[in-house]
Design goal:
With 371 residues, this protein is α+β, with helices and mostly antiparallel strands. The protein is built from 12 helices and 15 strands. Strand 11 and strand 12 form a beta hairpin.
């Protein structure tokens, strides 16, 4: 029977969209089921400000009377400012069936062409500020919080659809098997002694809304020149920050100031995938138990982001921020940290992580294709 791909309406069809993923990944030992209520909220134009700055169309593929795949296509207005004609695709999920994967990508490509796009890049769910990339190496362990996972055969299907690598990103693993390397510790100590105008403090979760405003001053400036970066509106940033709030641990989150002016921040998250996975996508009837009892058992962390405002990027502010995070992790007894994701050509960041003993253990990729 031929594959049929239909456009869907959000939020009404969000449950059917999400249900496909649960069927496709049933039995996969490394898939972390998303919380259904959170994904439904994310896919609701009334609750996600992303829909206010983009045009989005989602599709479901069916075969033999069953829904078997999903994809989204989106035109991000902010991204168009610097990259006109480049549209995104995401939520691209399918079985090992080339008819299904080809039909889904064709539907997304047709929609993007109708929007005036000349190139498609992804996967982005919905852009680089959200979950994105395709895992192409390192399939033998669970993804950490807010990182993606997919079967190994996905890359073969992407390439069969005519897509090619646009950019690779790496995830580094840093084992907690000793103190921070002497070289990094020495750089951090020397820098702080030489620059008493630099102060570093942990985030104050009791003043979370105020702290978020400090991050907002940094974010769009710090990453403005990064490949694939999409500027966040204030509303989008606040939505992301609200979602992160339950996971923020002040032991792993720091601000850096220069002469009292905000200069940068680092955000490392406990791996809440270890909490979410046994919930199997639902809070009720038993998911709440895992949410309440398992955080104390989380034994790994993810270095989620480290951003320095451009005017201060000549200073090695990363060293003291990394040092504090390392020391906090050792005190907490975590087994290790993932630093992700890091662009393949971000030589400065990769060098800093490798000096701390970090090893690449997963590779992720953004693909692109002309339309």
């Amino acid at each position: 029977m031929a594959v049929a791909v239909r456009p869907i309406q959000l939020p009404g069809d969000a449950s059917a969209f999400i249900d496909v993923w649960f069927r496709l990944y049933a039995g996969d030992p490394h898939w972390v089921p998303p919380l259904r209520f959170e994904r439904k909220e994310f896919l609701d134009p009334a609750q996600n400000p992303y829909f206010g700055v983009s045009r989005v169309q989602c599709f479901i593929a069916s075969k033999d009377g069953k829904d078997v795949g999903t994809i989204s296509a989106q035109v991000d207005q902010k991204y168009q400012e610097k990259n006109p004609g480049v549209g995104f695709f995401g939520f691209y999920e399918f079985p090992d069936d080339p008819e299904v994967s080809a039909a889904l990508f064709a539907a997304a490509a047709d929609w993007l062409r109708a929007q005036g796009m000349t190139r498609a890049e992804g996967p982005y769910n919905f852009n680089s500020n959200h979950e994105c990339t395709l895992l192409v190496d390192g399939f033998d362990s669970d993804p950490l919080v807010m990182m993606v996972y997919n079967p190994p055969f996905y890359a073969r299907h992407y390439e069969a659809c005519g897509m090619e690598k646009a950019k690779d990103m790496y995830a580094y693993w840093l084992a907690n098997d000793g103190p921070i390397p002497d070289r990094v510790g020495a750089i951090a100590d020397r820098f702080e002694k030489k620059h008493p105008e630099v102060t570093i403090r942990p985030v104050d979760v009791a003043k979370y809304d105020e702290e978020v405003q400090l991050c907002l001053q940094i974010y769009n400036d710090a990453w403005a020149e990064n490949w694939g970066f999409v500027k966040l509106t204030d509303q989008e940033f606040l939505k992301v920050a609200k979602g992160l709030r339950p996971m923020v641990d002040p032991r792993y989150c720091y601000f850096a100031f220069v002469n009292g002016e905000i200069a940068g921040f680092s955000l490392t998250l406990p791996d809440y995938n270890q909490v979410v996975k046994p919930m199997k996508g639902r809070v009720f009837p038993f998911g709440w138990y895992h949410w309440l009892t398992r955080p104390a058992k989380v034994d790994q962390i993810r270095v989620f982001t480290l951003g320095i405002r451009q005017k201060y990027q000549h200073l090695p502010l990363g060293a003291p921020l990394y040092k504090r995070t390392w020391e906090a992790g050792r005190q907490a007894g975590v087994k290790g940290a993932e630093a992700s994701w890091v662009l393949e050509d971000n030589v400065r960041m990769r060098g800093a992580i490798e000096k701390m003993g970090g090893k690449v253990y997963k590779t992720y990729r953004i693909y692109g294709a002309g339309l």
